[in-house]
Recover the amino acids of this structure.
C-alpha cells in the first residue's frame, strides 16, 4: 500500500497536475507522488504505460529491459529515438522519459528478469510487466503477492491486447453520485431542481494470482456458460502466450505466412483441449496479431496506465482481473477469471 | 514505417496507408496522441491545425509538449516532437484557426480522412460542415475526465455532428442572478458580469444591479413607493456601472459599499422577493466577518482554503486596483477579457462571488472550486486521451481498409457497464436525421421571432450563433431580394431596421448561405409576439400541440436549440444506457474562436435569460 506522505504539493506540482487533481482529488495526487513503479519491457506497450504513469506524477519509474532496440520497435516505441537502434531499450528511453515530467525520477535496469531476485521486484509499490513468458510473469506475480505489492501485466500483439491485474487485497474508495430533489423553500413553486450529491464509500476487492486466471477449468458449467457470450479474446491470449512459450518470440511480421499457420494449429489444439465450439476463434482474429500496432498499444497502455493510477491512489474500482481488447469489434471488456 | 514493413498489416491496408493524407484538427490532449499514433504507424502525409499556444496546465497529458515549450504554438511544437519519432513523415503544421477562408472546401477535399480533436462546439460544427461539403469522412473525438468517445461522420452514411440538437448550455434567469441568487454558481455568474461591467466589454444583458422588472416583485404593494426610490437608484445605474466606478477612481470602499451595501438594501425594499426567501444581509466595509479571526491551520492546496469575508474584501480591493491599472495601461476604448488563468481576474471573481454568497446566506467556495465553475474547466487526463486517440486511429485504419460500414461509434465509459464493457461500440451506424437542418438534402429550419422587434443585426447574429454560420448571405426566396450580405457595407445601413420594416413577414422564407461552408439553408420566419429574441424551430412540421404551461416554460428564450420541441425522438438510445452519453468536450480551454456575443452565450459558458 502506498502511504500518503503528508508533504503538501508545491506550487509547480499544483499547476502542472491541476486538471487531474480536479478529477481524482488532492489525496490521490499525494499518493501518486509517493509511489515507486517498475515497468518491465520497453516495447511499444511499455512505452505507452511509462508515458501515462510518468505524466500522472508518481515518485519514480524504473524501466527494465535487457533487449536491444530494433527497427521494428520504432513503429510503436516512441520513447527511443531512431538513432539508438542497437542500444539497450531501457537506456535508449531514459532521456525522453525524463523530459515527459522532470518531477519524476527515472532509473533503468538492464538485467533480464531471470537474473533478478524476488526482493528486487518487491522494492516497488507496483510492477507492470510486458513482453514476458507466462512462467516469468507468474514468478514475478507470486513474489509481489507474497509482499503484498500490486502486479499488473499485459501485451499487445498487432491490434489485439490484454491486461491482467493482481492487486492482492485492495481497499479503495468509490464516489457514488446520488440524485436528490432540491427545494428552495417550503412553497417553492419553481420546477423542482435536482441536486446531485456524491458520497464516498469504502470498498475492498480480493484478487487471485495469474496462474489461477490462466488455468481456468473450462469444463466447469459456470465457465462454459461464458462461452455463450461469445467473445474469444481470452483464448487469443492463450494462443499467443503458448506461441511465445514454444518459440521464445512473438509472431513475426516477416514470417506472416508461416506464423499464421502455427497460430491456426495452436488454435485448433486449444479448441480441442478445452472442448470449445468449432469456429469459436475465427481466423480473422489471428491475422491482426503481428508486430505492435501503435493505436492498439495506446489503447491498452491507456487502460493499464489508468489501473496503475487506481491501484496507487486507492480511488475508484479497479478492474478485476482481466481486460481484453478485441479489435474486430472494437470492444474492450473486463472479466474475472480464476476465482 | 510500420506500413512499410510487410506483414504487420495486410497488403491492401499497407498500400492504403502509404497513399493516405490525413488532417488532424486540434493539437491538444487527443491531437498529440493521434499525431503520435499516425506518425509511428507510418501515415506519410499529415497536416495539423491549432490556434492555441501551450500552457502549463496542458503538460499533464499533452505529452509532445514540455515546460520549455510553454507559450509556443501547439501545432508547431507537436509537429517537431512527432517528427523526432519518425523523420520520414511529412507533417505540415498550421498555427491558425480552422475557421478561415484559407481552409475551404477544396482544402478539405485533398484529405482521405479528417480527424477532429477539438475542444469546442463552434469549431466542431464548422469542421462537420466542411467535411459534409467536401464529402470526406470525419472522425470526431472527445473526452471528459475518464469518459470519451469516437464517432464517424460521413455524408450519406451516418448522422452528422449537428443531426441531434445538443443540450443547450446551462442558463440562469437574469432576475435570479441580479436579485435572488440561491446557489454559488449564481454568485459566480454575477461576479463575472460585474467584471465585464467594470473592466470588460460592457453588455446590457449583464447588468449587475437590482432588476426592478422582476415579475416576482411586480404587484408589490409598496411598488410605487419603491419606484420613486428606484428612480434615484436607477438613475445612478443608467450612468453605467463603469463610468460610476471610474468617477470614484475605482475606490474599493465606495464600490464595495454600493455593490454589497446600497444595492442589497435596495433589493430588501422589494419586499415581495423576501416573503418566502431568507432576505439578504447588507455588509459594511469596516465591519466584516472574519476580521479578527486568527489564521487557521489549512491542509491542502492554498487555493483550496475558503477565504473569510474580510479576506475577500481585501482581495476585492487589491484585485480591483490591479485590474484598473491594467485597464488604464491600454489604449482608450480597449477593455479586459476575463480569463480564469489571469490572477487578478480570478481573484476578483472569487472575492465578489463569495462576498455576495455570504450576503445571501449561500455557502462560500474556495478559489480552486470557483475556478472550475467560472472557467468551465473539464478535467482531463492522459490515459483517457490515449485510449480515445488510439481507437480513433484504429478506426481510421478500418476506413482505409474499406470497412467504413463497420466504423460505429465507440464510447469509453468511466466505469464498466453491466456487461463488463469499458469500450462500448454501437451495434450499427447511426443514420442521419432526415430533418437535420445541416445535412438533409434540402436543409430547412424555422426561426421564431417577433418581426416587429427583431432587427437585421439580430438576424445576423441568429444566423451566426444559431446556425453557426461564419459569413451569412440571405435573400428572400422567390424574389431574389438581398436581405443580408456578407460583403462589408452592402446591407449595413439596414442593421437597425426591424424585419418588418425591411418587408419581411410571417411565413416568408429566406435562403441563407455561407460561402465558406458551402452550406445553404431555407429559413422560414414565424411571427411570435412574445418572443423577445429568436429561437430555432428545427422540426419541419409545426410543433405538436403541447400542454400550454409546459410549452411556455420550456421555450423560455434560450433558443439556439430545439431540444424542447415535443417530437417523437427518432434515435434515442437502444437498450444500453451507454448510447445516451452526451457528446463530450475535449478540453477545458475557452473556445478557440471569440465567443459570439449577445444573450445566448454571454460568456461562452452560461446563458442569461431575460425575465
Ligand atoms: Zn445532420
Amino acid at each position: 500500500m502506498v502511504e500518503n506522505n503528508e508533504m503538501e504539493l508545491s506550487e509547480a506540482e499544483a499547476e502542472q497536475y491541476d486538471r487531474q487533481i480536479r478529477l481524482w482529488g488532492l489525496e490521490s495526487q499525494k499518493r501518486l507522488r509517493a509511489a515507486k513503479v517498475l515497468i518491465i519491457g520497453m516495447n511499444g506497450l511499455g512505452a505507452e504505460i511509462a508515458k501515462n504513469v510518468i505524466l500522472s506524477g508518481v515518485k519514480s519509474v524504473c524501466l527494465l529491459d535487457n533487449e536491444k532496440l530494433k527497427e521494428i520497435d520504432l513503429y510503436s516505441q516512441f520513447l527511443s529515438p531512431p538513432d539508438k537502434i542497437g542500444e539497450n531499450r531501457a537506456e535508449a528511453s531514459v532521456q525522453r522519459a525524463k523530459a515527459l515530467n522532470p518531477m519524476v525520477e527515472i532509473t533503468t535496469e538492464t538485467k533480464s528478469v531471470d537474473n533478478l531476485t524476488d526482493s528486487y521486484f518487491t522494492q516497488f509499490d507496483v510492477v507492470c510487466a510486458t513482453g514476458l513468458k507466462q512462467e516469468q510473469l507468474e514468478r514475478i506475480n507470486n513474489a509481489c503477492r507474497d509482499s503484498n505489492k500490486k502486479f499488473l501485466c499485459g501485451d499487445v500483439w498487432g491490434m489485439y491486447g490484454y491486461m491482467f491485474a493482481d492487486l492482492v487485497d485492495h481497499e479503495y474508495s468509490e464516489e457514488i453520485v446520488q440524485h436528490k430533489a432540491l427545494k428552495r423553500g417550503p412553497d417553492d413553486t419553481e420546477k423542482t431542481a435536482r441536486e446531485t450529491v456524491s458520497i464516498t464509500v469504502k470498498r475492498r476487492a480480493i484478487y487471485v494470482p495469474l496462474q489461477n486466471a490462466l488455468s481456468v477449468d473450462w469444463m466447469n458449467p459456470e465457465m462454459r456458460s461464458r462461452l455463450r457470450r461469445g467473445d474469444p479474446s481470452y483464448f487469443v491470449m492463450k494462443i499467443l502466450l503458448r506461441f511465445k512459450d514454444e518459440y521464445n518470440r512473438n509472431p513475426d511480421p516477416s514470417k506472416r505466412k508461416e506464423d499464421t499457420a502455427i497460430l491456426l494449429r495452436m488454435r485448433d489444439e486449444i479448441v480441442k483441449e478445452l472442448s470449445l465450439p468449432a469456429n469459436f476463434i475465427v481466423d480473422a482474429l489471428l491475422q491482426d496479431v503481428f508486430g505492435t500496432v501503435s493505436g492498439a498499444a495506446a489503447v491498452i497502455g491507456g487502460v493499464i496506465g489508468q489501473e496503475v493510477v487506481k491501484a496507487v491512489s486507492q480511488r475508484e474500482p479497479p478492474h478485476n482481473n482481466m481486460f481484453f481488447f478485441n479489435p474486430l469489434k472494437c470492444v474492450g471488456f473486463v472479466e474475472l477469471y480464476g476465482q | 514505417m510500420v506500413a512499410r514493413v510487410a506483414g504487420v498489416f495486410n497488403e491492401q491496408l499497407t498500400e492504403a496507408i502509404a497513399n493516405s493524407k490525413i488532417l488532424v484538427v486540434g493539437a491538444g490532449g487527443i491531437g498529440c496522441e493521434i499525431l503520435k499514433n499516425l506518425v509511428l504507424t507510418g501515415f506519410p502525409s499529415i497536416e495539423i491545425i491549432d490556434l492555441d499556444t501551450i500552457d502549463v496546465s496542458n503538460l499533464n497529458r499533452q505529452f509532445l509538449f514540455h515546460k520549455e515549450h510553454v507559450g509556443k504554438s501547439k501545432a508547431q511544437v507537436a509537429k517537431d516532437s512527432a517528427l523526432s519519432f519518425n523523420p520520414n513523415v511529412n507533417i505540415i503544421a498550421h498555427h491558425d484557426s480552422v475557421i478561415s477562408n484559407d481552409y475551404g472546401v477544396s482544402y478539405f477535399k485533398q484529405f482521405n480522412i479528417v480527424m477532429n480533436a477539438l475542444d469546442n462546439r463552434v469549431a466542431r460544427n464548422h469542421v462537420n460542415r466542411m467535411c459534409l461539403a467536401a464529402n470526406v469522412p470525419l472522425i470526431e473525438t472527445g473526452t471528459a475526465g475518464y469518459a470519451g468517445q469516437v464517432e464517424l461522420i460521413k455524408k450519406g452514411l451516418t448522422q452528422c455532428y449537428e443531426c441531434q440538437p445538443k443540450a443547450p448550455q446551462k442558463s440562469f434567469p437574469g432576475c435570479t442572478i441580479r436579485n435572488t441568487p440561491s446557489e454559488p454558481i449564481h454568485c459566480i455568474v454575477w461576479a463575472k458580469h460585474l467584471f465585464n461591467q467594470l473592466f470588460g466589454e460592457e453588455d446590457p444583458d449583464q447588468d449587475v444591479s437590482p432588476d426592478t422588472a422582476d415579475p416576482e416583485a411586480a404587484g408589490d404593494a409598496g411598488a410605487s413607493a419603491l419606484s420613486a426610490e428606484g428612480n434615484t437608484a436607477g438613475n445612478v445605474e443608467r450612468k453605467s456601472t463603469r463610468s460610476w466606478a471610474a468617477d470614484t477612481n475605482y475606490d474599493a470602499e465606495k464600490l464595495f459599499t454600493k455593490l454589497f451595501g446600497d444595492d442589497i438594501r435596495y433589493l430588501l425594499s422589494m419586499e415581495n422577493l423576501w416573503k418566502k426567501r431568507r432576505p439578504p444581509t447588507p455588509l459594511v466595509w469596516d465591519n466584516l466577518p472574519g476580521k479578527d479571526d486568527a489564521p487557521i491551520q489549512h491542509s491542502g492546496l492554498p487555493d483550496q482554503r475558503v477565504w473569510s469575508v474580510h479576506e475577500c474584501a481585501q482581495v476585492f480591493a487589491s484585485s480591483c486596483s490591479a485590474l484598473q491599472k491594467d485597464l488604464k495601461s491600454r489604449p482608450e476604448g480597449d477593455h479586459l477579457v476575463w480569463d480564469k488563468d489571469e490572477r487578478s481576474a480570478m481573484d476578483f471573481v472569487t472575492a465578489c462571488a463569495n462576498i455576495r454568497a455570504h450576503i445571501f446566506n449561500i455557502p462560500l467556495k474556495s478559489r480552486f472550486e470557483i475556478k472550475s465553475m467560472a472557467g468551465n474547466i473539464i478535467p482531463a487526463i492522459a490515459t483517457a486521451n490515449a485510449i480515445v486517440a488510439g481507437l480513433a486511429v484504429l478506426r481510421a485504419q478500418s476506413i482505409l481498409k474499406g470497412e467504413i460500414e463497420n466504423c460505429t461509434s465507440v464510447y469509453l465509459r468511466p466505469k464498466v457497464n453491466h456487461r463488463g464493457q469499458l469500450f462500448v461500440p454501437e451495434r450499427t451506424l447511426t443514420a442521419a436525421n432526415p430533418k437535420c437542418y445541416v445535412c438533409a438534402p434540402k436543409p430547412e429550419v424555422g426561426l421564431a421571432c417577433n418581426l416587429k422587434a427583431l432587427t437585421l443585426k439580430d438576424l445576423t447574429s441568429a444566423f451566426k450563433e444559431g446556425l453557426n454560420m461564419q459569413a451569412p448571405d440571405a435573400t428572400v426566396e422567390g424574389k431574389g431580394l438581398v436581405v443580408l450580405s456578407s460583403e462589408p457595407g452592402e446591407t449595413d445601413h439596414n442593421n437597425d431596421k426591424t424585419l418588418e420594416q425591411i418587408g419581411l413577414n410571417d411565413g416568408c422564407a429566406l435562403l441563407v448561405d455561407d460561402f465558406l461552408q458551402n452550406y445553404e439553408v431555407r429559413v422560414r420566419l414565424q411571427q411570435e409576439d412574445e418572443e423577445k429574441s429568436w429561437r430555432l424551430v428545427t422540426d419541419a412540421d409545426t410543433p405538436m400541440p403541447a400542454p400550454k404551461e409546459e410549452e411556455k416554460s420550456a421555450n423560455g428564450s434560450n433558443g439556439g436549440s430545439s431540444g424542447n420541441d415535443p417530437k417523437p425522438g427518432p434515435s434515442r438510445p437502444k437498450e444500453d444506457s451507454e448510447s445516451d452519453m452526451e457528446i463530450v468536450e475535449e478540453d477545458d480551454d475557452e473556445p478557440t474562436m471569440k465567443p459570439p456575443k449577445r444573450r445566448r452565450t454571454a460568456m461562452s459558458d452560461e446563458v442569461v435569460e431575460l425575465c
User: Anything to note?
Assistant: The pocket of zinc ion is lined by residues B 159-160, 162-163, 432-433, 436, 438-439 (CB under 6 Å). DSSP finds 16 helices and 16 strands in chain B. Chain B touches chain A through 68 residues (CB under 8 Å). Residues 221-237, 540-611 of chain B have pLDDT under 50 and may be disordered.
